[in-house]
Automatic annotation (TrEMBL):
Heme binds at H46, H70. The keyword Cytoplasm does not apply. It comes from Agromyces ramosus. The keyword Iron applies. GO terms for molecular function: heme binding; metal ion binding; oxygen binding. InterPro entries: Globin-like_sf, Globin/Proto, Hemoglobin_trunc. This is Hemoglobin.
Length: 118
């Protein structure tokens, strides 16, 4: 996925994407239920992990790690859809081409079975 990293504008574009995504997730009423009690540093770590999974980081898809991290959180399909859609919209708004946004969506889809437990 390095081409997406480049399309978004390298490290500067990545920072912008994290900020935009982060602001939207924290402002989202339906996702708030999962993130309300989580402190800022952990929340930021979450956004970075999410983006790493979206853009590269195959180790995040080895299963156990993601499954353990979300066990007991009772995350719903709707919440998973919503957070992925929030990222994809953020990327599209930042000018990432449509096919690249679609590829990110497909990539994240692979994590659903490890994360959704409700
Ligand atoms: C591909 C999608 C996702 C990835 C790559 C991901 C990644 C991670 C990682 C790596 C952690 C562990 C963080 C740590 O221990 O510091 C974590 C924790 C967590 N995730 Fe996710 N996550 C994803 C989707 C979701 C979704 C859909 C939700 C809820 C709607 C969610 C909510 C949480 C919460 C609440 C925690 C615990 C935060 C804490 O207390 O530290 N995650 N996630």
């Amino acid at each position: 996925m390095t081409e997406i990293y480049e399309q978004i504008g390298g490290p500067d574009g990545m920072r912008t994407a994290v900020t935009v995504f982060y602001n939207r997730v924290t402002a989202d009423e339906e996702l708030g239920r999962w993130f309300d009690g989580v402190d800022l540093d952990r929340l930021k770590a979450h956004q970075r992990a999410f983006l790493a999974a979206a853009f590269g980081g195959p180790q995040l898809f080895s299963g156990r790690g993601l499954r353990d991290a979300h066990a007991g959180l009772e995350i719903t399909d709707a919440a998973f859809d919503r957070i992925v859609a929030t990222l994809l919209t953020s990327l599209a708004d930042l000018g990432v081409p449509k096919d690249a946004v679609g590829a990110v969506g497909e990539r994240l889809e692979g994590a659903r079975r490890d994360i959704v437990t409700a």
